[in-house]
Amino acid sequence: MFPIAVLASGRGSNLRAILEAQQNNYLQAQVGLVISDNPEAGALKIAQEFGVNHHVLDFALYDDKEDYNRRLIKLLTEAGIQLVVLAGYMRLLSPAVVEAFPYKIINIHPSLLPAFPGLAAQRQALDYGVKFTGCTVHFVDKGMDTGPIIGQRVVPVLANDTLEELTNRILKEEHILYPQMINRVATNKVRIINRRVAVQEEEKDL
């Protein structure tokens, strides 16, 4: 089975969606490792609940970024990971990590990239007054949310939406999209052409 690692810093709702998809035999990959930079992350409890090997990589315990990144690369390499999945991982990956796993790191972002990159994408969408936003899964490169896009789902922005309401509506779509796009990568249904993704086949919903 295609081995993946999930990196998460927070409550781990996307991790749970991925593990439930695996449990239901939808995911065509196996979560072999969960890593968090936050010792209090809910994602660690979810990994424990599902019996997944998990590791805390607390940045405060390392001398510098280079030392931290070397340890991260070592953990992923020793586990034989073929795809690194960022699920609410709040630490920007260094160029060294990206270079160690070229086009083998994916991220999910709560907007229709290239619109509203970076932090607070949902707030950006509300402030700009768009009628639609959504979520995007993309490969990670050395920029901020600039890697080739693998797939997206559209979410309407409703009149009088609060930030919480819009965030939750997007999150529901993230939970559908991420397992789909992991399958797309794991089964070699994407090709990179001139830094863009060419998709061979669409996936069915969960």
Structural class: alpha/beta
**Span between termini:** 19 Å
The global form is globular
Strand order of the largest sheet: 3-2-1-4-5-6-7
Q: Please give the CATH class.
A: Alpha Beta
CATH homologous superfamily label: Formyl transferase, N-terminal domain
Give a count of the beta strands, DSSP E runs of length 2 or more: 9
Question: Hey, roughly how much beta strand do the residues contain?
Answer: 15-25%
What is the share of helical residues? Answer: 25-40%
CATH topology category name = Rossmann fold
Q: Detail the poorly predicted runs.
A: none
On the 0 to 100 scale, the average pLDDT is 94
CATH architecture heading: 3-Layer(aba) Sandwich
Number of helices: 6
| Main sheet characteristics | 7 strands, mixed
H and E string? EHEHEHEHEHEEHEE
Rounded Rg: 16 Å
Whole-number count of domains: 1
Give keywords:
single chain; 206 residues; alpha/beta; Rossmann fold; seven-stranded mixed beta sheet; two-stranded antiparallel ribbon; 6 helices; 9 strands; globular
Task: Give the arrangement of secondary structure elements.
Elements: E1 3-7, H1 13-23, E2 30-36, H2 42-49, E3 54-56, H3 65-78, E4 83-86, H4 95-100, E5 105-109, H5 121-128, E6 132-139, E7 149-156, H6 163-186, E8 190-193, E9 196-199
Parallel strand pairs: 1-2, 1-4, 2-3, 4-5
Antiparallel strand pairs: 5-6, 6-7, 8-9
